[in-house]
Every structure is written in C-alpha cells, then in structure tokens.
Amino acid sequence: MALIVQKFGxxxxxxxxxxxxxxxxxxxxxxxxxxxxAVVSAMGDVTDELLLLARAVNxxxxxxxxxxxxxxxxxxxxxxxxxxxxxxxxxxxxxxGAQVGIVTxxxxxxxxxxxxxxxxxxxxxxxxxxxxxxxxxxxxPEGQITTLGRGGSDTTAVxxxxxxxxxxxxxxxxxxxxxxxxxxxxxxxxxxxxxSYEEMLEMAATGARVLQLRSVEFGRNHGVVMHVRSSFNDLxxxxxxxxxxxxxxxxxxxxxxxxxxxxxxxxxxxDQPGVASQVFSALAEANCxxxxxxxxxxxxxxxxxxxxxxxxDLVRAKRTVETMVAHLGARTWSVDESIAKVSLVGAGMKTxxxxxxxxxTALAEAGVxxxxxxxxxxxxxxxxxxxxxxxxxxxxxxxxGLAEHEVYVExxxxxxxxx
Length: 419
Ligand code: ADP
Ligand code: ASP
Ligand code: MG
Known about the structure:
Blueprint: E1 3-8, H1 16-31, E2 35-40, H2 46-57, H3 63-87, E3 92-95, E4 102-104, E5 113-116, H4 119-126, E6 130-134, E7 137-139, E8 145-147, H5 153-163, E9 168-173, E10 194-196, H6 197-205, H7 213-222, E11 226-230, E12 238-241, E13 254-258, E14 261-270, H8 275-285, E15 293-295, E16 302-310, H9 314-328, E17 332-336, E18 339-345, H10 355-365, E19 372-376, E20 379-385, H11 389-399
Parallel strand pairs: 1-2, 1-9, 2-6, 3-6, 9-11, 10-12
Antiparallel strand pairs: 4-5, 7-8, 11-12, 13-18, 14-16, 14-17, 15-16, 18-20, 19-20
C-alpha cells in the first residue's frame, strides 16, 4: 500500500465529465489499496474569469480581496469532485486550504507556505476516506485567506505530500510530462523521462509553466519525488527527483520561453555609489520581483540601467521608478512590454563550454537580436523581441538536436568549465 498525492490541473477538471473521469481515476487508485489525497485546481479558465471580474470593478483591486475572490475557484472543484466520488460509492471528504492547515505568510496573491499541519488529512485517511484538498490557497496564522500565485496548486500538492510523507506526488496535467520545449510551440519536442530538481528548477523559473517554480523548490527541499503525467491517458510521464548516477546526463535538457515579463530602462542615472542600491531597494519594498539587471558602461558620469520584472508587478514598478527618476535626477525612463526570455537549460553545461556561443550563433542565424543575457552554471537566458519568441525556441530546439538525440553531443573542445 502506498500513500499517494494526486494533483489535477484546470483542464483536467474543466467540465463535469472531466471531474467524473478524475473521480474514476482516484477511486481506481484507492481500490488498488492505496491511500489517496487529491489536490485540485479551479475548473478550466475559472481563475482567469475571476481576474476579469475583479478588473471590471477595480483596475487595481486590493490584494486581500483578490485572494477572497480567487480562492472560490478551487472550492467549487473540491465539492464537485467529492460528490462525484460519492456517486461511485466511495467515501470522500473535501477541505479548503485553511481547513487542512496550509499556513502562509501574508503576501496576498503570492503567499509563501510556512507550515503544513495536515492533521485532518491524516485523520480522514485513517478513517479510510479519500481526501480532496483545494489547491492554490492557504491562510495566515490570523486566519486571512491567501493564494500562492498562478499555478500554485502544484505547490499545494507537493507541500501536502511533504506534510504527510507521501510516497509520491503525481501531477496530472494536459500534456504527457515535461518536454524538451513547450509541446504546443515545438511539434517534435521530446518527453523527458527523468529530470533532476536542479534542472527542473531552472526550467520552471524560465517559463516551463507545467510546474510552478515553488513546487519544485518545495520538492527539492523536502525530497518529494514528483511524477508529471497526463490525466488523459495512462502513459508514464516525467519523474522529477534528486540527480543520481543512473540518470542520463544530457548536456541540454530543454529550451524554455517566457513572455510574462516586461523591461524597464532608466536613462542617464548618475554613476555613483548607492544608486543601484536605492533603485532596487525601492522596487523590493514595492514587492516587485526583479529578474535580470543590466547596467551599461558609464559615459561622462552617467549610465543606463535596464531590468525585467513580471508584468503583474508593472503598475507598482512604474510608480516606484517614476519617483526614483525624480529623486536621482535621471534623464528619462521607458517600458517595453513586448519582450521574451528564451533559455537553454542543462546540467551538462557545467563541464561543456561553447553552449552559450552556439546559442548566440543560432539566434543570429534565425535573425533574432539579443537584448540582454544572463547565465547560471546550468542555464543561458537571452531577452529578445516578444514577437520572435516561438521562432527562437524552434531554432534552438533544432540547433541542439533536442528532438532526435537522447544526449546532445557538443562540437566544441571539452576542456574547462562554465557555459
Ligand atoms: P495545469 O492546468 O494542469 O496546471 P498548466 O497549463 O499550468 O497545466 O501547465 C501545462 C502546460 O504547460 C502545457 O499545456 C504546456 O503547454 C505548457 N508547457 C510549457 N513548457 C512546457 C514543457 N517544457 N513541458 C511540458 N509542458 C510545457
Ligand atoms: N487556479 C490557479 C491558476 O489558474 C492555480 C492552479 O491552477 O494551479 O493559476
Ligand atoms: Mg499549472
């Protein structure tokens, strides 16, 4: 007998027929002798529709009220799924995030989980019931409802799995697993059988939205083995776990893209100590998540600073930058909302130089101009024009032979390290 957490995303529970299909899958797992906890998302596009409703009454809704609204989406699904399981003759009980003791900080709309109490989950399992939990939501120690950021049901599932020491956390979605690129953009993207937390973290952080970044962080920190698979078939998906010697060591695991960020440039900032500190401290205080930063070479005592942030933080960032520009005596500032970030991820980059150079060549040959570059030991990211994102992803997937080769064999000399 195993203890299994199964998470079902929006498309997987998008209609009442789909909810019945999910109920059958959970019951089959239960009948096979396992203890089951299901974590579910809001049905289909419900979260997007709730966001539109909010914006129709207020362009900048208070974040506490936003959480009150968004948390309702998942609550519909848990009750319907529990009813569907009862209709199949099995005992199920649904709980909200607050009820199962998902305790978060007060960072409304992107709260972080601090503690998972999960006692009522364990009690219900001990009574032989199937447990259904609302994803994406929690509550502060004071009882305020919070949500965990888009895609947050993945994190709920992994957090519950850690909290009850589950054997595996299955993430059921609308694709067969984690692919070498978004399969909706690259037709011949290949499913990855096993991937390390380290690589999955970089893929999730750079746009592979199949797993929320925090769910992978949580999985790694608590050693939860994740299995990403389709809710539409029974094929094995992708296992996400600690790297070990048995794993295929691809140089490049995948190529990702992200069009959810915008770029802000502040021009002619005085080039003196403390300026960057003031700009980015003010942005941090305004709860803006800065990603890439580039500062130009100083000319005649002034410089330009560019950085990227999620578009959802843009209203707050614009307000902050406007104040800082006046405060610092910078000349002007601008926003570009049509950027994309394309990234190559692969643990093999650590020991194979030449990957970055080959990436830049492939982009140049595809006529794609690079605006900003950032790297980690296992990733190279380039900011490019948003319109060219898909073209760039296809060119990189092709150049690095990700469809055909199990392991990409590089052509550059293999001495030294880095990218
Ligand atoms: P769910 O509602 O099940 O949480 P999401 O829409 O959040 O599903 O995530 C699944 C989607 O992620 C897929 O439909 C796919 O288009 C997208 N995706 C982006 N990059 C990748 C990738 N590298 N591998 C698999 N899916 C990806
Ligand atoms: N319903 C939320 C969203 O659409 C959470 C989730 O699906 O993971 O982002
Ligand atoms: Mg998701």
